[in-house]
Design a protein that fits this description.
The protein is of the alpha+beta class and about 220 residues long. About 30% of the residues lie in helices and about 25% in strands. The chain contains 7 helices and 10 strands. Strand 3 and strand 4 form a beta hairpin. The chain starts with a strand and ends in a 14-residue tail after the last helix.
């Protein structure tokens, strides 16, 4: 019930995940990333614990295929899981269990991998990878373009209700973590895209506020001199 992309920016070293689903709060359960290590998604009939398993294996030096294999081995029901990973060298891996739901498939590209289940058709992940590879600029822009391409290619077989974007940079906390956990009407991907449009120009300033508060710019709100 989900389509997603995990990716690395070779220029900035950032990692990120963009994801959407008919289920509520998909990014809260499925999107995982760690600065300097990689980005992963654990989806379909989701076991969120596998996100940490994959990132821990990447941190221990495993390449993406080995990290995904370790998560499959650690899980008691891998036939239900769909897992995606990208590592610090840009290597990717995908596992789709035989009991993934509906039409399910995946595609891997340069520094990225996309996958989905309950898809409108099997070409959705390939469209996402193509959009990521063809889009220039910041990682967030490329991830949003990929997610929008997934929607344009048909997305899920039914309407989506949640979406999210997670990016990590050099700090232990996310550089950006934008989520729409539920929309009854409208497109959550469009809402996350709009949130990124607003957040992106301020993202570096929020890092400055954390690391060097005296150097942080004012946003002109009451009480912020």
């Amino acid at each position: 019930m989900t389509f997603s992309i995990v990716a690395r920016c070779a220029q900035s070293g950032q990692f990120g995940v963009a994801i959407s689903s008919s289920s509520p709060a998909v990014a809260a359960r499925c999107a995982w990333a760690r600065a300097g290590i990689g980005a992963v998604s654990t989806q379909n009939v989701t076991n969120p614990a596998l996100g940490a398993v994959m990132l821990d294996r990447l941190a221990a030096g495993d390449a993406a295929p080995a990290a995904v294999a370790a998560a499959v081995a650690a899980d008691g029901h891998p036939e239900y899981r769909q897992l995606l990973a990208v590592d610090a060298a840009g290597r990717t891996a995908v596992h789709s269990g035989a009991r993934a739901l509906g039409i399910w498939t995946a595609a891997e590209g340069r520094d990225c991998a996309a996958g989905g289940n309950m898809l409108a058709h099997a070409g959705v992940p390939a469209a996402m990878v193509a959009a990521f590879e063809e889009t220039s600029g910041a990682l967030g822009d490329r991830l949003i373009a990929a997610l929008q391409a997934g929607v344009a290619a048909g997305g899920e077989a039914g309407p989506v209700h949640s979406a999210g974007l997670m990016i990590v940079d050099r700090q232990a906390w996310p550089y950006a973590e934008l989520r729409i956990d539920w929309l009854d009407e409208g497109c959550p991907v469009a809402a996350v895209a709009r949130a990124w449009e607003v957040y992106a120009p301020q993202a570096a300033d929020y890092v400055t506020r954390a690391l060097s508060p005296a150097a942080a710019p004012s946003y002109g709100v009451p009480g912020d001199e």
